[in-house]
Amino acid sequence: MKKFLFGLCFGMVLSLAHAQQETPKSIVERYGQLRVKGNYILSQYGDTVQLRGMSMFWSQWMGKFYNPSLVKWLKDDWKITVIRIAMGVESGGYLDNSFEEKKKVYAMVDAAVANGIYVIIDYHSHEAHMNPEPAKKFFLEVSKKYGHLPNVLYEIYNEPLQDISWHKDIKPYSEAVIKVIRSNDPDNIVICGTRQWSQLVGEAAMNPVKDSNTVYTLHFYAASHGQYLRDEAKAAMAKGICIFVSEFGTCEYTGNGTLDYMATQAWFEFMDQYKISWCNWSVSDKEETASIIKPGAKSSGKWRPEDLTPSGEFIRDELWIKNGPLLK
Ligand code: MG
User: Fold this and answer.
1) How far is the CA of 147 from the centre of ligand 1 (A)?
2) How far is the centre of ligand 1, averaged over its atoms, from the C-alpha of 148 (Å)?
3) 112, 148, 233, 276: least buried by Cβ within 10 Å?
4) Confidence of residue 319 (pLDDT cuts 50, 70, 90)
5) How far is CA 220 from CA 59, 88, 198, 201, 280, in A?
6) 205-221 pLDDT, tens per residue?
C-alpha cells in the first residue's frame, strides 16, 4: 500500500511537472500590465521589464508578412516578446488606404494577443505633426479597440525629422494624440518619437510630455551611430526619462551597407545594462543588410536556416540567448 501511495504521489508530481512544461507562461501572462517608473518599464508585479523583438517593415510595402502565422513563427522560433507593427502613413499607406492598412494592423495585433506577446502599434511617419487629425482619429479607434488589453503599446510618431522643434512641433502633437488615447485607455504605454529620426532624446528629457506612462524612442543603426548616441541616451536617462529602442539596425543608417557585429554588440551591452527594450529592423526580404530573411523566404515564417541573412542569424541568436530563459 505504502509503495502504491508513493508511486501515486510520485506519478502526480511527475504529471504536474509535465503539465507545467507543456504550458509555459506567455510573456504577457508573466508581466501583465506594464507601467513606467523613472528610467524603467515595470511589470504589473514590480519586475523590471526588458522586451526584445522584431519590427515589421512598412506595412504598405511588405504587407505579405502581415499575417498571423508569421507572428506565431517569430514567437515560437525566434523567441520574440514584442513585435512592432510599422503602419506606413504617407507614401501609399494609411492616408491613402486607411481600410486596408488598418486591416493589416488589426490582424497583427490580434495575432500578438493570441500568442501572448506585446505589440507596438507604430504610426510609421516622418511628418505626422504636419497632419495630426488622421493620427488622432487612428489612435482614438485603436485605443478603444485594444486599450483594455495589457499587450498593446502605442508608438505615435516613428521618426520626426531634424529641422523641426521638439518643443513647438513634436511635443504638442504628442500631447494631443496622448489625450485622445487616454480618453479610452488610462494606462497602456505610449512611445514618443524624438527629433532627428528619434535620436535627440535629451531635449525631450528636458521638457517631457505630461503623461506618466510615456517613454521616448531612441533609434540607432549600429554601423553609423555609436558612443555619442549612447552618451545622449545616458544624459537623457539621468534627467529621469525612460527610453525604448523601438527600431535599430545592425548596419548603416540607410538600412544597408556594412553589417557591424562589434558595434551592435556594444549596443546590446548598453541596452542590457539599462534594461532598454528593443525591436530590430526588420522583418523583410528586401535585398539590404537590415533584412532578416533572403528574397523568396516564405511570408508565413517556417524559414529554413539558409533563408536567414547574416543579420537575421545574429539577431535570432541574441533573442534565443536573452529571451529564451524568460520563456521557460
Ligand atoms: Mg489599458
Assistant:
1) 4
2) 4
3) 148
4) very high
5) 21, 19, 8, 12, 10
6) 999 999 999 999 999 99
